[in-house]
C-alpha cells in the first residue's frame, strides 16, 4: 500500500468571509483582535444565532431517520405473499398496471 492509502481524510466546515478594501469610505472600520472588522464579528453573531434552528432541523431529520429504520426493520419481517400483496397495493395506488 502506498503512503496515500494510509492517510485518513477529515472533513471540516469552514465559513469564508471575504474582506475587501475600499478607498471611498470616509472612516475606516475599526479592526479588532485577529484582524476582524466589526462587520465580520456581527456576521459571526448571525451564524451563532442560528444554532437553535439547526438543532431543531437536526432533531427532525433524526426523527425521520428513526422512522425509516423502523419501517425497514418491519418490512424485513414480512413473508413473500405479504410483500407481493403490499407491492400490488402500492402499484394500484400509484396508478400503475397490475403485475
TrEMBL record:
Region (Disordered): 1-36
Biased composition (Basic residues): 1-11
Biased composition (Low complexity): 14-25
Protein name: Uncharacterized protein
Amino acid at each position: 500500500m502506498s503512503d496515500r492509502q494510509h492517510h485518513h481524510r477529515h472533513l471540516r466546515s469552514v465559513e469564508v468571509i471575504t474582506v475587501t478594501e475600499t478607498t471611498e469610505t470616509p472612516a475606516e472600520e475599526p479592526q479588532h483582535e485577529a484582524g476582524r472588522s466589526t462587520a465580520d464579528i456581527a456576521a459571526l453573531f448571525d451564524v451563532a444565532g442560528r444554532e437553535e434552528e439547526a438543532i431543531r432541523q437536526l432533531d427532525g431529520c433524526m426523527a425521520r431517520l428513526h422512522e425509516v429504520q423502523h419501517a425497514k426493520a418491519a418490512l424485513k419481517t414480512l413473508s413473500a405473499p405479504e410483500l407481493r400483496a403490499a407491492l400490488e397495493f402500492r402499484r394500484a395506488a400509484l396508478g400503475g398496471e397490475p403485475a
